[in-house]
User: What shape does this take?
Amino acid sequence: MVDFNNERTIATPATDIERVLILQKRESVMDAIESALKMDRAGVQAETHIIHARMFNLWIHISALLKRHLSTEEYTELFQKVNSHDIQNHLDAIVKINKVLDAVNLTKIDTRTRIDTTDIEAENELHGL
Amino acid sequence: MIEHEALCRNLEKLYMRTKQMNKASLIIIDGGVGEGKTTLAVQCADYINKLDGKQPIDLLTGIQIGMGGDEFLQKLRECYAQKLPILIYDEAGDFSRRSAMTRFNATINRTFETFRAFQIIVICCLPTMQALDNGLFQKSIPRLLLHCYNRKRNYGNIKVYSLYRTYYTRAKMEKLIIPSKAYGIVNPNFHARFKDLEPERQAQLTRLSTRGKLDILRKSEIESKGLISAKDLATRCGRTRQWVNLHLRRLNIRPQMEHGRKAYFPMDSLGILSSLVKQR
Assistant: This one.
């Protein structure tokens, strides 16, 4: 946001900052899940409190976004999973959250339109020719 | 006839585009001398004729093949009259960017702008599509480029480009020292191969093509010698053909060349006849 009361005239939009924060939080949740799974596979009891804390942190950032994209039942169910202490519930929750983030193009990387290159007219039309 | 599935699909789409959407569709076939451009054009035209429920191209009369611009314009009218769906404009080198300002080129340009009303697909065969006028591409008239290369005894090779990729190829050609290398740099949409025609049809095509090429050669000779026909003399003097013929006989001006049942006179005769007109 540009604050015209000071002399800075070039600033980063708030949406960009928020996007980066969400991606960072998501990354930290997945790191925690990775550590917990490693411990679990090694036969050590996994520490789910870290996953819970980080996931809740992410939830706070994106709860409004989730409310817009999920039905009431789905939203409530997802919150219960985020708030639980079971690693399986956390895994289900992060998968669901990833789907929503992909739908809003935050984590989607395959955005290039795919066409059959043997269809000449389709390619011409795609490029407005 | 063409058997390549993707090429057939694209020809069908172009046919639908011309017939149902009433849009202009031009197919460019380019490649070096003897790479099989005319053979490929005939095969594509046979396929489109088949889609339209017509017979394969008649290579005896050559109704659907125009050699050079004049013949192409004449055949366009004939094809329209006979409701034929496709016409080949062979030896299209006379329609080129360099001579784009001539009246003939302006006529051809205008024809390409308006020929969608005829619902005829035109196949343009020429050595390199780089020579074509930019205006044609800006109006999105050419839809498909078939580049023939590396012909063998029994088959030819094609690289197929969309209009989108043709633009990139043209841009590359402008910058390269060897323009034809652009075809190796820009990826085609797909590759294909085509076989030669049946021997009988190939012989007919050879005869037709040779006749056409000799005709073009003759016309070039006439142009290079600066000769003029009686009809053009009449137009430029503002007199009738009969008046021109009468005075040419009286002045004992003989034709220097005859071609296609027309006599061609030296350019000086225009000056002589014009002075006669002024005296009267």
Remarks:
- Chain A touches chain B through ten residues (CB under 8 Å).
- The two ends of chain A are 38 Å apart (CA to CA).
- Chain A has a mean pLDDT of 89.
